[in-house]
C-alpha cells in the first residue's frame, strides 16, 4: 500500500545544512545517510534530547526502512544500527514523513540576504568542525565566496570568526622529511613494477625539492639531461613564488643523471611525466611509502621537498639551498630547513625498515653498475 505524500509545498523552507558526498554510493544509501547526518546534528544539542521531530524524506525506500528499522540490504542495515543507537542514547524520536521529489525544496534558492548567507556559512563551518573535517576545506569555502561574490566580504563576520577560532585551536600536522635512502628505495620499488614515471617523480621531486603541483606539472620538454657533464636542468613554468615568470634549476650529480637517463629511456613520456590525476598520484605515492616500510599518514608527497631541502642544506649550506629552493627570504628558509633537520635527527627507523630500504635501493647498483 503506497502512503499519501505529505504536502511539503504548503510550507516555506530554507537550507540549514548541505554538502557534497565524499564518494559515490547507491542513492538509497545516500538518502539514509542524509537522515543520519541530520539526526547527528540534532543530537549534538543537549536541548534537543528527549524530543520528537518530524523528518520529511522523498525516498520511499528510506521511509520504509526507517519505519521498520531494518532492511534486507547490509549497507542500509549498518546505517540503521547507527540511527537506532543515536535515538536510544539521546531519547530523540524522529517521525518520518514522505513527500514526492518535486515538493522537496531542500535545494532551494540562495539566501535572500547577506545576513542569511553569513548564518548558513557559519553553520556549515561548524558542521565541518564537529565532523572532524579538514580546516582547509572551510578556508577554501570562505575564500571562494569572497572571490566570486566580492560584495559579501564585509558581511561574513560570523563565518570568519568561526574560521579564525578553528585556526586558533588547530594544530597542523607536518609531514616528516624523507631521507635520501627512503627516496631511492621508493624509486626502486616503483621501477621494479615497471612504473618508471613514478620513479622519475620521486627522484626529481627530492633532488630539486619541488612542490607537489610543480612536480606534477613537469613535461618531458622541461627536463634536459647532459650525461657527458653529469648535469640535469629543469624548467618550472608555474612556480608558486614566480608570479608568472619562468624558473630553471640545475644540478651537477653524475650518478643521479645516469639514473634519470635510465628511467627516461624506459618511461618515454610523450607529454607530462605523470599523466594521471593528482588524487591518483597521492594514492600511488602512499602505496610506495607503505612499500618501503613507512607510514603514509606521516609521509605525504610534500615530504620530498622537506627531505630534499634538508639533504641539500647539509651538503652545500644555506646560501645555495635558498637559491635552489626558490625561497624569497633566507630567514624563512633557515626556519624551514632547521625544523626539518631536527625532525630527521629525532627520526629513528627500526632496523628491519632500514634493511628493507637498503635492499630496495640496491636495485640501482644492479641496474647501473658503478653508480
Structure, explained:
It is a single chain. This protein has three domains: 8-103, no CATH class; 114-169, no CATH class; 180-367, Intergrase catalytic core (hpI Integrase, Chain A). The chain is 54% helix and 8% strand. The chain has 16 helices and five strands. The chain has a three-stranded antiparallel beta sheet, covered by helices on one side. A hairpin with a 4-residue loop joins strand 3 (223-226) and strand 4. Helix 1 runs parallel beside helix 3 (74-90), helix 5 runs antiparallel to helix 6 and helix 8 packs across helix 12 (303-316). The longest helix has 18 residues, at 114-131. The model has no long low-confidence stretch (mean pLDDT 86).
H/E element order? HEHHEHHHHHHEEEHHHHHHH
In order across it, which strands form the biggest sheet?
3-4-5
CATH top level of the largest domain is Mainly Alpha
The assigned structural class equals mainly alpha
Q: Quick one: CATH superfamily of the largest domain?
A: Intergrase catalytic core
Number of helices: 16
**From the 3D coordinates, which CATH architecture of the largest domain would you assign?**
Orthogonal Bundle
Fraction of residues in β-strands: 5-15%
Number of domains: 3
CATH topology of the largest domain: hpI Integrase, Chain A
Radius of gyration: 27 Å
Overall shape: it is: elongated
Q: Could you give the count of β-strands?
A: 5
Q: Summarize model confidence as the mean pLDDT.
A: 86
Strand count, sense and barrel status of the largest sheet are: 3 strands, antiparallel
Amino acid at each position: 500500500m503506497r502512503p499519501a505524500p505529505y504536502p511539503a509545498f504548503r510550507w516555506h523552507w530554507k537550507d540549514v545544512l548541505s554538502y557534497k558526498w565524499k564518494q559515490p554510493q547507491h542513492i538509497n544509501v545516500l538518502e539514509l545517510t542524509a537522515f543520519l547526518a541530520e539526526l547527528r546534528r540534532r543530537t549534538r544539542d543537549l536541548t534537543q534530547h528527549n524530543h520528537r521531530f518530524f523528518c520529511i524524506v522523498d525516498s520511499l525506500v528510506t521511509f520504509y526502512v526507517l519505519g521498520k528499522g531494518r532492511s534486507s540490504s547490509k549497507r542500509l542495515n549498518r546505517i540503521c544500527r547507527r540511527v537506532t543507537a543515536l535515538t536510544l542514547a539521546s531519547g530523540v524520536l524522529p517521525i518520518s514523513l514522505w513527500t514526492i521529489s518535486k515538493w522537496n525544496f531542500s535545494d532551494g534558492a540562495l539566501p535572500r540576504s547577506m545576513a542569511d548567507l553569513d548564518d548558513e556559512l557559519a553553520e556549515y563551518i561548524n558542521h565541518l568542525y564537529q565532523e572532524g573535517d579538514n580546516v582547509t576545506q572551510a578556508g577554501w569555502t570562505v575564500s571562494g565566496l569572497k572571490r566570486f561574490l566580492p560584495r559579501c566580504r564585509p558581511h561574513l563576520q560570523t563565518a570568519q570568526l568561526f574560521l579564525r577560532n578553528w585556526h586558533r585551536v588547530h594544530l597542523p600536522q607536518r609531514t616528516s622529511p624523507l631521507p635520501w635512502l627512503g627516496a631511492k628505495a621508493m624509486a626502486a620499488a616503483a621501477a621494479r613494477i615497471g612504473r618508471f614515471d613514478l620513479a622519475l617523480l620521486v627522484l626529481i621531486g627530492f633532488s630539486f625539492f619541488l612542490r607537489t603541483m610543480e612536480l606534477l606539472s613537469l613535461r618531458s620538454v622541461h627536463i634536459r639531461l647532459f650525461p657527458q657533464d653529469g648535469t640535469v636542468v629543469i624548467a618550472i613554468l608555474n612556480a608558486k613564488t614566480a608570479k608568472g615568470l619562468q624558473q630553471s634549476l640545475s644540478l651537477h650529480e653524475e650518478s643521479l643523471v645516469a639514473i634519470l637517463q635510465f628511467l627516461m629511456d624506459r618511461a618515454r613520456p610523450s607529454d607530462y611525466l605523470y599523466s594521471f590525476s593528482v588524487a591518483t598520484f597521492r594514492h600511488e605515492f602512499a602505496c610506495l611509502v607503505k612499500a618501503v616500510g613507512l607510514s603514509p599518514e606521516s609521509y605525504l608527497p610534500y615530504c620530498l621537498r622537506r627531505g630534499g631541502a634538508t639533504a641539500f642544506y647539509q651538503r652545500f649550506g644555506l646560501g645555495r639551498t635558498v637559491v635552489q629552493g626558490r625561497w624569497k627570504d633566507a630567514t624563512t628558509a633557515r626556519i624551514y630547513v632547521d625544523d626539518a633537520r631536527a625532525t630527521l635527527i629525532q627520526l629513528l627507523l627500526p632496523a628491519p625498515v632500514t634493511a628493507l630500504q637498503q635492499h630496495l635501493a640496491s636495485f640501482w647498483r644492479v641496474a647501473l653498475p658503478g653508480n
